[in-house]
Amino acid sequence: MLWLHLLVNGLVSGCALGMVAVSFSLIFATTKIFHVAHAGVYSMGGYLTWSALRHGAPEPLALLIGIVACGLLGALIQKLLYERLARSGATHLVVLIASLGASAVLQNIIAGVYTSNVLRFALPWADRTVPIGGVLLSMTQIVTVGIGLATYAGVMWFAHRTGLGKRMRAVASNPFLAEITRLNPRDVHVVVVALGSAIVCLPGALVPLDLGLQPFGGVPMLLTATIAMIAGGVGSISGAFVLAVAIAVLQNLSLLVMPGEWSIGVTFFVFVIFMLFRPRGLFAT
Amino acid sequence: MARNRRFWLAGALAGACVALGAAAQAQPIRLGAVLPLTGPAAVVGSQEQRGIQFALLHANAKGGIAGRQIEMLFEDNQAKPDQSVLSFNKLVDLQGVPAVITGFSGPTLAMAPLATRKKVLLVNGGAQADPLAKASPYLVNTIPVLAGELEVLANYVLHDAGKKTAAILFENDAAGISGRDDFAASYTAAGGKIVAQEPIAFGDTNYRPVLLKLAAAQPDMLFVILTAGVSPLADQIRQIDAKFTVVGNTFFSDPEVVANPNAEGWIHSQVLINAPDSLAAEFKKTYGTEFDFFPKQYYNATNIVLACVERLLKEGKPLTGENLRAALFAIKTFDGLTRVVFNNNTADTQVNINRMQAKTDAIIKVIPPKQ
């Protein structure tokens, strides 16, 4: 039954990764900015939630504080960094480097304030396990799946059913037309980066609840999420989420036939081959 | 008139010589340290740095050595071998330091040939990969390499604890691979059987997939060699309801791990290093963190270097790497936070076998150092 345990573990990890991929996809599709600082926002979300808990806030409130703070942080990054760079005519490469710099600054602030030690949330309920279909799942894993699926559904609803969501898609599809039709792309960019940053706080808090907090934990997560977004088709929320789950499942199941050190390499090799045949991604829009 | 002028000239020259001598006397003693101060390994590197700083704080508060303050020049290597080489060269060639304190097996091994070529004392206070023992005549390890420690552990778990089959979870770096090989060699030589092994990347705390695979092999025990992230491992082992006993080495001696109820019953070897309560309290007051294993080791390693410096200054010998190395072997036994004996380049110290129970790390067997 090892395969079943690994499959379920992959699905759980995939839900967390899916939230990162969806939030990154929202930002990239709309702003065309390769927002590497998202890794720093992800880490910041976990640490802010942890701090709120340490100061006595109940779990939902602590998470809400983290979400709001990350949203504001994202809006600040867009307003003070990306928007200024856009005004000064910076190239994509310059914006990418600036984003990398912002990510490094955020991670180093975290390391400076909280130290680089692995911090635990140590919430008694999070450690409890529940047997489901012959597989033991921790409460953290169950909550992660629930919130992951709800986030995916929520983002889909927001993008397709709300006015702001439609504006966002319009800006993503044709920024020039959006500008002349007074959709205010700059305002939309701020809202989208804030929204994506608020969303990434969820996995930023839930993953460390299970694995511990580390200042640099966001980087590998973002790298994998980026691949999921590209393989899923840039601009496709479903593509990003489904491919994130697929990557996580593949990484887990690969352990059945090879040592763990090969799983990431082999998984990405499979996706490189996949991209050769479908370069625009699985759910290209 | 001419005699008078000569007298004043001689006086002025003598005064200048005294002043210059005093200035040289007052010049700080500069030593170097190459540690990971940023990046994922900074979790350990910053602890090591605090240990060094704490030792210097004490030494300088006492007036330094022979009236000279000691200054440590820190270089950040991010635990990368290539960066370590650059840092080492910078400290030695530009700053002229005679000794460099460092850690982490890969970076230390990268700097070892340079230490030999430039005759600079390279002091490793925390890394334990076996190749460190013979990497350079100028590399001294103030902590035993893994082979000796794990031989003791392998024999204990097999013969005393009766664990006949083992799985191994190791960090995929020089120290982890060395630990895996050492444990497997000692354990199988003693009659045990390794039934599975899996690597994990440094800093990766998502152990669950590999734990599920290792647990499926149904070993009596799981030998773990990780330098960080042991507490999340304890949580995840409990969550998968694993039946094996968890066994590790000195890297387990993290107060957070000991305090974690999920680590109850874990067994580990422990290179002995103790600090008096007053010293631990002073450290916590100064840095706001516990006086854990790595700060203690680097406090000790720094004091070993300072003892060698003091001996050279007393003997009036120049502060060179070669002389420092000679002084270290001349002193041979250092009684600091633990007794360290240098029979060769690698220290012999006491190794204990500990069991974590009721949130304490209880000693269950003692193996004294070789004299």
What descriptors fit this protein?
heterodimer; A: 285 residues; mainly alpha; ABC transporter involved in vitamin B12 uptake, BtuC; two-stranded antiparallel sheet; 77% helix; B: 371 residues; Rossmann fold; 2 domains; five-stranded parallel β-sheet; 12 helices; globular
Compact overview of the structure:
The complex is a heterodimer of chains A (285) and B (371). Chain A has 285 residues and is mainly alpha-helical. Helix content of chain A is 77%, strand content 3%.
Give a structural overview.
The complex is a heterodimer of chains A (285) and B (371). Chain A is mainly alpha-helical and 285 residues long. In chain A, 77% of the residues lie in helices and 3% in strands. Chain A has twelve helices and two strands. A two-stranded antiparallel ribbon of chain A has the order 1-2. In chain A, helix 1 runs antiparallel to helix 9 (185-211), helix 1 packs antiparallel against helix 11 (237-253) and helix 6 (139-161) packs across helix 7 (163-173). The model of chain A has no long low-confidence stretch (mean pLDDT 92). With 371 residues, chain B is an alpha/beta fold. Chain B has twelve helices and 14 strands. Chain B has helices at residues 2-26, 42-61, 81-94, 105-118, 146-160, 174-189, 208-216, 230-239, 255-259, 277-287, 293-315, 321-331; strands at residues 29-35, 70-76, 99-102, 121-124, 139-141, 165-171, 193-200, 221-225, 245-248, 267-271, 333-335, 339-341, 351-357, 360-367. In chain B, the strands form three sheets. In chain B, strands 7-6-8-9-10-13-14 form a seven-stranded mixed β-sheet, with helices on both faces. In chain B, strands 2-1-3-4-5 form a five-stranded parallel β-sheet, with helices on both faces. The chains are: A mainly alpha (285), B alpha/beta (371). The A-B interface holds A 2, 5-6, 9-10, 13, 108, 111, 115-118, 120, 127, 129, 136, 138, 210-212, 214, 216-217, 220, 251-252, 255-256, 259-261, 263 and B 38-40, 42-43, 46, 172, 197-201, 203-206, 208-210, 212-213, 216, 228-229, 231-232, 235-236, 238-241, 256, 260, 262, 289.
